[in-house]
Amino acid sequence: MFGYIILRDIPKELVQIDLLQFPIKGGFRGFAEVSPGPHYISIKVNEEMHEGFWCWVNPGEAVIKVFDYEKKVFKNDESENEAHFKNLALSGAMNHILISVTKNNFQSVSLWKNLTKNISSQNFPPILHNEVPMTLPLDIDPDNVSDWYLLKFKSRFEQAFNDTHKSNIQAFLGEFEFAFLKYLVRQTEENALDRWMNLLQAVYNAGERCVEASPDLFISFVNVVQYQFDLLKKEDLQPNTKVIAGVEKIIEDMKDTGTSKLIKHAQAFETYLVNRGIKI
Questions:
Q1: Are 183 and 196 in contact (CB under 8 A)?
Q2: What pTM value is reported for the model?
Q3: Model confidence pLDDT, tens digit, residues 226-274
Q4: Which residues on adjacent β-strands are paired with residue 45?
Q5: Where among 106, 137, 166 does a domain terminate?
Q6: Residue 243: left if φ>0, alpha if ψ -120 to 50, beta else—which one?
Q7: Cα→Cα distances 188→40, 184, 260, Å
Q8: Domain limits at 248?
Q9: Strand-by-strand arrangement of the 30-34 sheet
Q10: Transmembrane region positions (predicted)?
Q11: FRET partner for 22 with CA separation of 20 to 30 A, picked from 30, 102, 158, 227?
Q12: Contact at 8 Å (CB) between 89 and 136?
């Protein structure tokens, strides 16, 4: 079952939902046939795309937002208006002034689902974390250096996956997906790009021990990242870029475990990269 996103009092020029943009004019009131899950909405204001908002759409429900021209922000509608427009949307009475998202955009809708499959409604939108890398204390006794690395040091991957996300695969990948999409839909979000790249490199450099400890995470990761790479330009996927540098490590570590399913997915990922013209 689909949901609805109703937009009130917006400039009628251009509207964006997820990866799709539509020119609009008077009478437009939002979107029908919206797949359940996370969505991004933006509009063109004064020749620029607005920062927009993220929302979670439940099946058979409607999200109602009003644009405040004075403050240039989207806000929740008054409770009476919200109830009124929800009833109109769910009854089908507004269908003639709504864009049906899925009907003529099945490929883009399917791609969005694949890009967001680990993002959960719980604690939505995901927080973009920023772990502080562990460094050797300056005042440590030289005799204790080995013990510090053995007993206290944690890699970026261990900090993010084990500590921040409590070894929850969906939570870790949900943040990874959200960071990528937050930058993709609005490329002024440099903090989102930084977080995505940090997590990318953290996984690349996780090491064979971490792969063996959480094989399902790494299998899911190489599947997720292929959908993301499909949206990147060829110049972004060169060996000297941060996106690709080190990718051979995770492929090698997955193979070195000797586990058949890890080897299978590592080989599939390697084949994908080769087909994209990426030398590793």
A1: yes
A2: 0.94
A3: 999 999 988 888 888 999 999 999 999 999 999 999 999 999 999 999 9
A4: 48
A5: 106
A6: alpha
A7: 15, 9, 41
A8: 116-275
A9: 73-76, 62-68, 3-8, 30-34, 98-100
A10: none
A11: 227
A12: no
